[in-house]
Amino acid sequence: MARAVRVCVALGLLAAVGSVPLVSGDPPSDPAHGVNETTFPLLWSGDADGEAAVTTGENATSAYEELAAYTDVPFAEPPDDVTRWNRGEHAAFPETSHNTSIHPPTAELAHGAFLKDAYVDVFAISPSTRARLAPDERPLYVAPDGRVLATIDYRVATPSTRLDNETRTTWTVSDHHIDDTRLLVDDTLETSRAGSHTPTLGYDSLDEYDGTTHTLRVEADISVTLRRETETCTDGETASTCELEQSTVEFPVEQLTVSHTVDVSVQELTISGVRTRYPNGDLGIATFTSDPWRGFTIGESTVTGVWQFYSARDESWESLVWSTGDGDEIQHSPVHPLHVAAFPSATGPSATPRATSTLLDTYGIERNPPELPPDVALDVVARPYTASYGIVTRIDASDSTPDVLTSAGLVSGVETDNPVDSVYEVPTNESTLSLAVENATDEQVTVTVTLEDAETGVPINTTGELDSVVINGQPVNTDDEGTATLTMPRTAGGITARYEPGPWWRTSHAYVGDTDTVYVDGGAIALLQTLYRMAIPIVSILFAVYLLERTTGWRILRSRRP
């Protein structure tokens, strides 16, 4: 697919942007985790826009950095750098001791007798895209193969030492760990890993499960072993004054299972379509699928639907909570996972390069426009729009025919190669339309139009089809013989008929349009028209001769008298 953002577009937008209201959020200042330096400043939609601090020299501010400082920038395709960034941020999640649990404010915490503030949460799913289809429809699309990045933490609440008459009970932590982490798809175990505070759980062939909507559940088993020593007084009245000579040691164990679920829709590209070859050699392609998708490339042409993309930080990870036995402390999060979102853009579908590619049609479900987060400043559609499930284009293929059509989904990396010759072909022929005057009076004229296949001579019947024949603005339908007769008021000038074929992708045999024009002879009006047409060249010749006489003195029209 085409690059998401081009320098010329960036500079053009930069020149057009004026003052923009400030919004919340502050992105990291420098790229990390191997993220492309050019793409990095564009990843933070919804950040605090404002005037960029322009620098020169070795650390000169780029056009992309200036643009991103003023406004949010859409991508034509989901940016791959989001996966790279999330992987690095996930590995940088803070480590803690058994006395502290670090978790996002939205985490679902579990508590046991000794294990407190235990949780597992999904940091990111890579790759994935949140599709903003409508105000109340925002499915999370994932690839058939991907990874779930999770975070797990807990703290251990150790009972205080207790003095009770002749005994003293002392508690210490003997062992604690995350035993096991699991990923389940619709209650079916997909992956199991050894315990980790930041597990990465992969899944494969999600498209082989029944249905397209699934529940991913991450589970973790957490256990703690405490050492409880009970010392008994053998000489004295209380445990605080006597000698403690006898003791017993026990090791109570507690295990806690925590879980977190995410509903996802697997993006499985099953493309159907038809093709045609125009008489001049151009190739027509109509492709469609049951899910929102990005578009396709064929040869040198890139065709996209209504969707554009942006990436922004996950707001649920803006801050983290440090939970201890003394209470909770909220701090700004040192890690910032990103998510990718798709939205219907006001820019609409497109086909490039325009010199050799023409977008003919898009079709699909009509939806109400979605709303973007208030801090994201992008041009989303403002009225009900057509989700581009079907895309039709015409490309110049007179020199060579592309072999493969590559379709792309809304999720990064979800692509399918389809051989062009495997797509059903609709024949497209030239047509021949002829118009004849059957009868004419001073008030009206009757004409007959004949329409047939130019190659085979087979009559073309437009009755009940999407095709039509228009005679001087009046539509008519041809019959099984390919003819139609129309009586109409007589007017000055010729009578023109044109054949308007229906969309080739909605028929079993397509045609190219044709036109014909006739002039009506006979009658007073026709005589005047004929005299008028004859008079124009005669008058023009006489006027030219007159000018020639005046300039040269020659006598061409007048004879000399002796």
UniProtKB/TrEMBL annotation:
The chain crosses the membrane at residues 531-548. Keywords: Membrane, Transmembrane, Transmembrane helix. It holds the Pfam family DUF8186_M. Residues 92-266, 271-416, 429-518 form the DUF8186 domain. The keyword Transit peptide does not apply. This is Uncharacterized protein. It comes from Natronoarchaeum philippinense.
